[in-house]
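Rather than argue in generalities, we have chosen a single entry, letters for residues, whole numbers for local backbone shapes, without further comment.
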Amino acid sequence: MYITASSSASSALLRAASAYSRARLFPSSFRNLTPATPTSPSLVNHHRSLASAAVRPFHCSVPRWSQRLDWRSPFSLRAQIRTVNPIIERLERKFATMAAEHPFKAVLTSLPKPGGGEFGKFYSLPALNDPRIDKLPYSIRILLESAIRNCDNFQVKKEDVEKIIDWENTSPKQVEIPFKPARVLLQDFTGVPAVVDLACMRDAMNKLGSDTSKINPLVPVDLVIDHSVQVDVTRSENAVQANMELEFQRNKERFSFLKWGSTAFRNMLVVPPGSGIVHQVNLEYLGRVVFNTDGMLYPDSVVGTDSHTTMIDGLGVAGWGVGGIEAEAAMLGQPMSMVLPGVVGFKLSGKLRNGVTATDLVLTVTQMLRKHGVVGKFVEFYGDGMSELSLADRATIANMSPEYGATMGFFPVDHVTLQYLKLTGRSDEAVAMIESYLRANKMFVDYDEPQQERAYSSYLALDLAEVEPCISGPKRPHDRVPLKEMKADWNSCLNNKVSFKGFAVPKEAQNKVAKFLFHGHPAELKHGSVVIAAITSCTNTSNPTVMLGAGLVAKKACELGLQVKPWIKTSLAPGSGVVTKYLLQSGLQEYLNKQGFHIVGYGCTTCIGNSGELDESVASAIAENDIIASAVLSGNRNFEGRVHALTRANYLASPPLVVAYALAGTVDIDFDKEPIGTGKDGKSVYFKDIWPSTEEVAEAVQSSVLPDMFKSTYKAITKGNPMWNQLSVPSSTMYAWDPNSTYIHEPPYFKNMTLEPPGALGVKDAYCLLNFGDSITTDHISPAGSIHKDSPAAKYLLDRGVECKDFNSYGSRRGNDEVMARGTFANIRLVNKLLKGEVGPKTIHVPTAEKLYVFDAAMRYKEAGHDTIVLAGAEYGSGSSRDWAAKGPMLLGVKAVIAKSFERIHRSNLVGMGIIPLCFKSGEDPDSLGLTGHECYTIDLPSKVSEIRPGQDVTVMTDDGKSFTCTVRFDTEVELAYFNNGGILPYVIRNLIKQ
């Protein structure tokens, strides 16, 4: 199966709600950090401060984002004035009792400072004197430390610690362990629905007469607003300001809601729009590497509601993407239940050849790991080649973990990490503390010392010298194409039948030329013509080497007289203000501007589909002539329909290659043999003439990337901007829902909710809403991009007076369930077998044989009292972790998804929303079983949840006499509890009310 391990939302809150009162008055985050003796002053103070934090009202009049007074210390924002409360005294008495109860009090150790005194206390892995620990991968040691530190024999048990120590034997058995991340990371697309859920949960608690303050984050939560800016204005010095003004016009309501959340919920930091991309800000600023919380030292770890949270793994911080539901569990300070993962050891040797980029490397690594099979596993990099990779190179590789399928792509901390921390302005004392702690706890790699051989589940190796320039596409990130083979590959794609590597263009139409006028000047497009060239995404904009490399390509092109065609939509969206500073310092931004790559904003932009509209003349030429137009972007995903509705071919490339392809104007080119263009001297200019050497790039990096740039950027990051600062929000802790809002709407999850769970509801005589093949992504299920003018969502907005120009995107309207339900399965590139080859967001309403929009068909089924199911192939739900890809189907009335395999996070999200995930048996699928989707389906599931076992087989029957066996993908007992309650959120509410 595609899934081999789980970090499930369905596991995250089991102990959370059932033990809430205990956790609320005595949170494990400080219960488990008691010292070996209660007389240690730093730790007693630690417990006092945490106790106060746990019970204080925490309603501040100052916006949370503006309180980071010391930019180098993300903790300083959270050091709030504590409210005196008699309960604190009782808690401190409880601490004194619990101090003697910690199962691992014997290994609580002092970490001395070199000049005297101590950094703090920590739970020492070496003090366990267990030789098995020396062989553990570094990534597993982080799980082990967390389990030891948080062990209370209730939420985290000694048996859990033993499972992790014995990883070499237990990981193949798919054992389950709890893990408590140190913090939670959100971006605004996924953060808005998470805050909506929290606000709605408060309302539910209030309506049912319970304590609303039970709904509050207990661990640090950082939310970076980066997903809302669109590329509306390009090729202009004023593009940043113009796009930000449009961003605020469209999203004022959402931004006000998030600003409200930063004051209504404690421990929540909101980084304002225009600051950068969440993962780059996390890498350069938010990442702690080691926490020092009032004298308790422990490794930084994070889960985020964006699948590319893994970028922080390049800094040696364990982090990965989860669904918003899982993140809400972690916010409440509760352990996530996860399957102890296998770890693939990836050995790197040698060094990259001249002119080869980190992007070429990550696309190569992605292809290797996809082939090897790493879904649900950690990948840990090691070897002599590590010294040849900068921290930014490592972060690029870690960023694309979702594309190669791993939970993490982990780079342990070494000297390169420490150098990066100093470069990005972390203080010398902080770096010294980080190094001392990690060395003392055997979590630091020193390649100058003999290396202890570590055990891995499997092994891969790559000589960096074998990596060659490449791009990836046209429809999937792991379809790597060596640059030298690109022309041949493109022509094969034109000829091949429609598939991930095919467009089925008839031979006679392959040389079609679409001539048109662009602002009064003659222009033309062919198949493969580049219409979007975007330097975008934290994957690459965090890496000075490739960013300055792009500037050097632009500079050489300008000097030779080459110019990007004016009808190509060019853009540059840095992941932080640091990029702008070093591009200006180097003098290269001037040349990027001359080629049309003006800075358009500080956010994800094109990488997530916020590419904005193409010029009307270009769009018409593509549509009227059925041109297979191309986008080339430095992003991490290129699924069809994601980048732009009119670019059917989308290629991932390094920033310098983005500039090169923009100059060429087509992907139908052999860079080795064909000229890119004609220079001002009338001579042909070739790829080699504009491509910088490794030495040229290194020199630019050395002279242009300076520590003060990071310091000045992040000192200012919490100041916001005038538009953000002018947002006025209420001080109420309960959100006042506006029924007329088209952005923020109270979801119906708790409507008519009863105190008793509904029980395990089976599926009887359900119609098939959709019948899919393989690789249906969350972009297909719940697109984040533009709202098509003829869609059900558009009709809903128009009926409420919203004009087409103000539709914004689906991603920006994730706080409104009415829009998102209508946007479910609304991707214009959806391939549904019920439509027999027709592509689009429609389906067949089986009882009447009518062709309807998916939403309209689903509503007709619901009105008639009919359940629905979805049939699918392999890798269902791959791509971004996206709650609405599960919430949307639930609101449409989908009761089960039957697929060959599921992506890890999406399966978890389905369970979290009460939808049954079922897997066909190996070798079977809808086609082999003769299923057409026109049948009615009954799933023979026991009516009592106590009679259902995780992973058991069930029989599925159709009304035309077919019968087949599927595996129920409830992977843990916790997930069964959620199913019994109709989903994770009702489960949490019911259990909190009981306390």
About this structure: The chain is about 35% helix and 15% strand. The longest strand covers residues 763-771.
